[in-house]
Design goal:
Strand content: 5-15%
Shape: elongated
Distance between the termini: 31 Å
Helix content: 40-55%
Largest sheet: 2 strands, parallel
Length: 83
């Protein structure tokens, strides 16, 4: 995905005019998440992909935490609670 950044830079003025859209993904998309957050302050989440949700590959707690975050209902979370 990092190979797309020069193309995105060429269209910076157009992208800057767009309404921010939440972006979510992991692994290969990480470079784009960082780019959109740093360049445009778009909301980004490094987390499970929609495909993982659809294939039921995400545990129930992660599903709930992600949905709460996406729909503006984030809850405080202690890392030791996940262990």
């Amino acid at each position: 995905s990092a190979d797309l950044i020069p193309y995105l830079q060429q269209h910076h003025a157009v992208i800057k005019q767009l309404k921010p859209k939440p972006l979510m993904g992991l692994s290969d998309i990480t470079a784009l998440l960082i780019y959109f957050y740093q360049q445009y302050q778009w909301p980004t989440i490094h987390g499970p992909s929609p495909l993982q949700f659809a294939l039921n590959r995400v545990d129930e707690q992660t599903q709930q935490l992600t949905m709460d975050l996406l729909f503006g209902k984030p809850k405080p979370l202690a890392l030791d609670a996940l262990l």
